[in-house]
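anyone seen this seq b4? input:
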Amino acid sequence: MEAGRRLLIVNADDFGYCAGRNEGIIRCIRENGVSSVSVLVNGMAVEEARLLRSFPLHSLSVGLHFNISEGCPLSPVSSIPSLLDKENHFLGKFSFHQASIKGEIINEEVERELTAQVNHFKLLMDRPPTHVDGHQHVHVFPGVRDAFAKVLRNENITWTRMPIDNQLEKCDWINAERKKFYNDVVIMAKESSKIFKTNNINFTERFIGMCCMGKDMTLQRLKSAILDYKRGEECHSCEIMVHPGYAALPGIGGCGTGPDDFALSPEREHEMNILCSQNWKDLIKDINAELVCFTQILPIKDNL
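predicted toks r here
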C-alpha cells in the first residue's frame, strides 16, 4: 500500500434499534458509505440482523454493540441487579455513568450480560462478532472494562473501539453537558487502553465521532478531523463512529423502553444522506483514503 494511505473503518452503530434504522444502515452499506456495523441484540428489530449475513466478511465487519445502559437485559433480572433500576430496566446513560464512578457496578454481572449478548449475536449471525464496542461507550467505564476484556479474551474477539476523540477541544458547537460526558469518556478510555492491550484486544490508531453526530456532521468537519490525524507519510487506521438511519416512529423501536429523542429526530437521516452522497465518496478519494473493515487491518504496536 502506498505511503500516506488512510484506512477508514466507518462503523454504523445501533443496527436492530428499529426498522427505519436498519433500512438506513443497509442503504449506507449498499452505497459504500459505511464498512462496518454494530448490532444491538436487545433492539426491538434485531431479528433483521440476519440480513447482514448476505454481505461477505471481507467487505463488511459485523460486530456487537454491547448495551447495558438502555432498555431491557437479556439475562434474568435477578442475576444482574446492579445494572438495573426498580423497573428492571438498565439505568440510563447518565445514571449508569454515575453508578460506575461510584463503584456500584458489579463486574460479574457485566460479564454475565455481555456473555448473554455475545451468545445471542452468534445465534443470529451464525458466527462470532468481528468486534465489540459499547453502546454509549460503556465498555470503558469502571466496573465494566475488566469484565469486558475478560469476555472478549475468552471469546477470542480481538477488536474494540477506543473512544478518544482528539477533536473535542476544537468543537465549540456542542453544549457543555455533552462535552463533559465525552471528556469523561476519553479519560476512562485512556485508562482502559492498557487493560485491553494486555488482553490482546486491538483498536484503531484514531477515533472520530463524538463531534460529528447528527446535525453536527458535515463533510468539512469530517475532512478536517481525518486530515488532522496525518502522521507525515505514515499509513494509519481510523474508526469513524456514525449513526445513520431513517427516523423511528413514535412508540416503535428502541431496546424495550421505546425510542429516544435522537431516534425520533431527523438527525440520523441527515447522517445517512451525507454517507450516501457522491460528495462523501469524492472526499474519501481526494484525501487518499480507503474504507475497510476490521478483518482488513493489522494490529499495531502502539495505539496511543
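The mean pLDDT is 92. The longest strand covers residues 6-15. kinda curious what u guys think
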